[in-house]
Amino acid sequence: MSRRLLVTGGAGFIGANFVHHWCRVYPNDRVVVLDALTYAGNLPNLKLVQEYENFGFVQGDICDGYAGQGQRTLVDKILGAENIDTIAHFAAESHVDRSILAPGAFVQTNVVGTFTLLESFRQHWETKAQPENYLFLHVSTDEVYGSLSPDDPAFSETTAYSPNSPYSASKAGSDHLVRAYYHTYKLPTIITNCSNNYGAFQFPEKLIPLMCINILMGKPLPVYGDGKNVRDWLYVNDHCQALDVVIHQGKPGENYNIGGNNEVENISLVKTLCQIMDELAPDLPVSPAEKLITFVKDRPGHDRRYAINANKLKTELGWSPSVTITEGLRLTVQWYLENSDWWKPLLSEEYQAYYRQNYSQ
Ligand code: NAD
Ligand code: TYD
């Protein structure tokens, strides 16, 4: 059976990688992207699939048109016109630092937007003769579980939610709504909670692309606090493969954690990036690149450690990550080296203004 997917946020980092994966592996499936093209959404991310005959793109806001019962939203129209059976929901405000500077958009898109989608999808699904063929995949984060101490066990699917930033609180709110729609209406939903992703097409205000680009430009590498915060890094292609498995084999009503088994302190990660750049990039403006490392003021409320226990996905659905952090980082650095045409236009006046605001606190 071929699927008809609506991918929200498909012009963002993970969504675009997911669309590439899906169009390559399932060329007979219809893939429609709905994306508002915020600062983080970038149409060139979808260049590779523009010519693909089953691909469609709609520029629009997932919240658009919601005005209470009886109003048709933009999403209602797309679900009907495209006869969608699967929503892969990536659209979100996703950057913790921006959620500290301006939290309002996070509540709007992450909570209200997810609610709007759930309502539309429920009404669409309720009229169908074969409701078992429908799925709402909600892509969420490990940050909903809060922060770990060094000796705590990794987050599992039963860890209590304890979000600490406006970003993670808004994602937790959206997860609770998704859960409630399964519990109350039996809407076929699945929630995935993944760790920090890295790879091609990541907007250069997240740690890894920001460091790669600053090294190439000879700019300081701003490490927050003591640099000993730990993240569990997941290569984005592995994440997309995990989502593929979840869509095809996951059980509605379940949550699955997705992680890379790669816990690393930030300072150690940044030093590794510097070493790979020293090796792969000729003529760096500052060499060795480590000379650029600069400790800066810590992020307010900075979560100390995230770690994912992804055993459920491994034992129940047979997925585990395919690349080590060393392999994934080399592939990623190589990609940023070869794709300055992609990232240079993103360093816009708006980006510079954000950068000044975030790093001058
Ligand atoms: P991103 O910020 O790169 O992309 C988000 C996309 O959503 C952008 O294309 C943006 O234009 C779009 N968007 C934002 N608001 C919208 C709206 N109101 N209507 C329609 N489109 C809108 O994010 P990402 O890193 O690709 O993350 C995708 C999902 O994965 C998010 O839900 C995020 O919470 C989750 N996640 C990300 C990571 C990570 O490391 N990047 C880790 C865990 C979970
Ligand atoms: P980030 O990529 O923003 O992801 P998240 O906050 O969702 O984990 O940051 C990853 C880690 O790197 C986090 O501990 C904050 C830290 N960090 C820095 O030290 N300097 C930076 O300039 C950025 C953007 C992040």
Structural overview:
- With 361 residues, the chain is an alpha/beta fold.
- Helix content is 41%, strand content 15%.
- It contains twelve helices and 13 strands.
- The strands form four sheets. The chain has a seven-stranded parallel beta sheet with strand order 3-2-1-4-5-6-11, sandwiched between helices.
- Strand 1, helix 1 and strand 2 form a beta-alpha-beta unit.
- The structure holds nicotinamide-adenine-dinucleotide and thymidine-5'-diphosphate (TYD).
- Thymidine-5'-diphosphate binds next to helix 3, helix 6 and strand 8.
What is the residue-mean pLDDT, rounded to a whole number? 96
CATH hierarchy: architecture of the domain at 4-202 and 234-262 and 307-321: 3-Layer(aba) Sandwich
Q: What general form does the structure show?
A: globular
- Read across the widest sheet, the strand sequence of neighbours is 3-2-1-4-5-6-11
Keywords:
361 residues; alpha/beta; 7-stranded parallel β-sheet; 12 helices; 13 strands; globular; binds nicotinamide-adenine-dinucleotide; binds thymidine-5'-diphosphate
Concise synopsis of the structure shown:
The protein has helices spanning 13-25, 74-82, 96-101, 104-126, 166-185, 207-217, 236-249, 266-280, 311-317, 325-338, 340-343, 349-359, and strands at residues 4-8, 30-35, 55-59, 86-89, 135-141, 189-194, 197-198, 221-224, 230-232, 234-235, 255-258, 263-265, 293-296. The chain has 361 residues and is an alpha/beta fold.
